[in-house]
Amino acid sequence: MAYNLLKGKKGIIFGALDPKSIAWKVAVKAHEEGAFFTLSNTPTAKRFGQIDELARITNSEVILADATNLDDLNNVFTKSMEILGGKVDFVLHSIGMSLNVRKKKVYNDLDYNYLMKTLDISAISFHKLLQVAYKLDAINNWGSVLALSYVASQRTHYGYNDMADAKALLESIARSFGYIYGRERKIRVNTVSQSPTLTTAGAGVKGVEGLLDFTNRMSPLGNADADECANYCIVMFSDLTKKVTMQNLFHDGGFSSMGMSLRAMKTYNKGLDIPIDID
Length: 279
Description:
- This protein is of the alpha/beta class.
- The chain has one domain (10-270): Rossmann fold (3-Layer(aba) Sandwich).
- The chain is built from ten helices and seven strands.
- Helix 1 (22-32) packs parallel to helix 3 (51-58), helix 1 packs across helix 9 and helix 6 runs parallel beside helix 7.
- The protein is globular.
- 42% of the residues are buried.
């Protein structure tokens, strides 16, 4: 059911790849809620993903860009304003990648060149995006910018590796830029810390199936799925949340506030005498 929460609003959605991606679902929901927007991803993502199909479904245009490249980002915002007929009201940053994770490098044996790429792609690109938008004055007053994060930014999660460092930096950027944008232009900047979600990228995290099961059992409401995350993002883009900024907003069924659940304690007690292999 649509509520016209974004009727007449304009935006840019970075990172949609295929129907499994959260950005894809946000785009579909934003379209249903009356928004007009452009889509951006890399040329590689266009080749291997289905972003052109999403553009057709949502009646939007694709602007290819490397989100770590300032010239590309300038082009995205400039062309988006031309296509949409003015400044935008919302921006989604759904970008993340770790070569250390892909290459199965453990945290105490990182490739530092890969680490720099992880930080640049997954976090510093958010600062670049915000800085370009700020200099171009590309976002309307009371606009909303969101980036997708994860609880591993604050708590150690096996297998998440250097992406945890990137998410911590991402959240810090949202606070620091959120202060400036809020003070000067009444624009809000937040991160959404989503439940582990089986996107195409998320499937590459070691032990993700066990993680999904564990967090689902630990969360009082269960894991939040990609469609539910999209709904939350739509609310954050709407005028219903005009005074929410500089926050890391947990959307995880309560997992982030849990210590030990009854179910987990019972399972733990049963397994006390069972040896565990740690690699």
